[in-house]
What does this fold into?
Amino acid sequence: MHTRKKVSKQKVIDLGLSSLHEIGADHICKVCISNGGSCCSGCRHLSNKVGCQLRNTSCTAWLCGFLKYVLYETGLLQKWNDFWDQVPGKDHRVDYTPEFFFIQQSLRMDYMRELSEALASDLQDLARTHITVGFIFTLREKMDQNIDKFMSYNKEPAKQANIKRNIKILSSHFHRFHEALSDYRQRLPSIK
Ligand code: SF4
Ligand code: SF4
It folds into this structure.
């Protein structure tokens, strides 16, 4: 059983940012941003060449389809979602999270930067070689929708199996990522 622990909003944001670093999100974001797909585009809190001026719990918790996919494959997505479900006041690009509140479970991600680095290389290749403009962003949205569906059917294995097949097809371009994932799984045999 988890015990309740008082935390500050800043502590939760710091935990989220250090977890994103362990995941290697920056590798993927770099490719995404350089191809014009940044999720911060048009946000009033974004300062040119400086970055986000209002880091909040909402944007720290939010995962795009690519980042969701890394956590889906490593079996850590539920852990991520459970952690952020405890954090009140999340909204779009802003939060109403109190300065202090209680949580029951903390967040600690495994080191998997090599996975994101591999996925970033796959995405860069796809962006360079695929003739359809915005191909990787269409893929990102499809990944996002399918993974959300997969998570929501956690009590319906037959439906989950169908969605799992879709995700497998969508991710079939990610050759370097799959190699890195296989190495990662060998290091952590408990992951299916
Ligand atoms: S959409 Fe995803 S990969 Fe792109 S900048 Fe945002 S978090 Fe990073
Ligand atoms: S508030 Fe969110 S969307 Fe806006 S710049 Fe910061 S991280 Fe990006």
Observations:
- The chain has one domain: 5-187.
- The mean pLDDT is 94.
- The chain has nine helices and four strands.
